[in-house]
Design goal:
The chain has about 350 residues and is mainly alpha-helical. The protein has 10 helices and 6 strands.
Length: about 350
């Protein structure tokens, strides 16, 4: 190949490094040309600039040909820097995911105390990362997707495997099916939550309620049989079968349309006189959780399950008020429009709600 290029160069004075008689300095003003015998060899030159050449070797000239691809931009677009306020909530989410994965490992090693502690710790972090993102104004689409993936691992896969390693494995395939159903229902619950969060037609009061039991509370509630065993209830075949049906019941509550009180509108603003008592209550709750974890978790789970009917009743009251407000608006007299055909309703009524929801 080098000999062929050397022969082409010697036969063409215009392509020699020293130039030709019309261009002795070797400065190229040529346009891209193609030689028939060189296999479509194109040479790109710029006016007023010397052609870069390598030194002559024993076998001939070695051309340094730089062909720029039209699809590559020499000025690459750099990734814009991500602010720290956006990374902080994602770091908390990743720590929660590590806790969920650690819970699976602890259950595999029959260390169920640490496994349950890791699930509870992941639930606490799950309640922190979203509020931290809103407080720092660091919410992002990436953080929302990462949070959903972390919740599926922490509150879907981890509790299912903990229950299976703890007692459902004694039921063989039936126990494994129950564990899979719980994990799948947790994934469906999270997917539905992501879709419903983007609905623009939801009334404002609907944010006070979840549709179905949320995944963190479902994970803590489904582990109730293990809590009662740690409290001293004997482990028996009846308890294992009860755990099977209880797991399926919690899974169905997660994917149901049952309105569940969310508590998002509670505690957004704390009066100054309530700051001290609130801190005392939080410290007391943490102390009780560390000193009497199984009593507190059992009592909290039973109280939460008992409060589900009250959430449904509250949702029905909100629906009734919204329906009455809509009927009141529809009963208002229609006035002719001064601009054109049709009719408009008067808007000078002070008792009319500003938003129908």
């Amino acid at each position: 190949m080098l000999q062929r290029l050397d022969a082409i160069m010697r036969a063409s004075p215009e392509l020699r490094p020293g130039g030709s008689e019309e261009n002795p300095a070797g400065r190229g003003v040529q346009t891209p040309r193609t030689r028939a015998g060189a296999g479509a060899l194109a040479i790109y030159e710029s006016p007023g600039l010397p052609v870069p050449m390598a030194p002559r070797s024993a076998n001939g000239y070695i051309w340094l040909m730089a062909i720029q691809s039209p699809g590559l931009d020499p000025r690459r677009k750099r990734f814009r820097r991500i602010p720290v306020r956006t990374l902080a909530p994602n770091i908390v989410t990743l720590i929660a995911m590590c806790a969920g994965l650690t819970a699976i490992r602890m259950a595999f090693e029959d260390r169920y105390v640490l496994a349950l502690a890791a699930v509870v710790f992941a639930a606490v972090l799950d309640g922190i990362d979203g509020r931290l993102a809103r407080f720092l104004k660091g919410t992002s689409r990436f953080g929302a997707e990462l949070d959903s993936l972390s919740d599926f691992v922490n509150f879907g896969v981890a509790p299912a495997l903990i229950l299976y390693f703890w007692g459902l494995h004694e039921l063989r395939s039936v126990g494994w099916i129950a564990a899979m159903v719980f994990a799948i229902c947790a994934g469906l619950r999270l997917a539905r939550f992501n879709v419903m969060a983007e609905e623009p037609d939801r009334p404002a009061w609907a944010s006070n309620f979840f549709v179905g039991v949320p995944a963190p509370m479902g994970a803590i509630a489904v582990l109730l049989p293990i809590y009662v065993v740690f409290l001293g209830v004997p482990r028996s075949s009846f308890l294992i079968w009860s755990t099977l049906f209880y797991t399926l019941a919690i899974a169905l509550l997660m994917i149901s349309r049952l309105p569940v009180f969310s508590g998002k509108r509670v505690g957004t603003r704390v009066p100054p006189e309530m700051v001290g008592p609130l801190i005392v209550v939080m410290v007391l709750w943490i102390g009780l959780l560390m000193a009497y974890p199984w009593i507190l978790l059992t009592a909290g789970t039973l109280a939460y399950l008992a409060s589900l009917p009250f959430g449904w009743l509250s949702y029905r009251r909100y629906q009734q008020r919204s329906r009455e407000a809509m009927e009141e608006v529809m009963r208002e007299p229609m006035l002719p429009s001064p601009i054109g055909k049709g009719a408009v309703r008067p808007n000078n009524q002070a008792d009319r709600p500003s938003r129908l929801n």
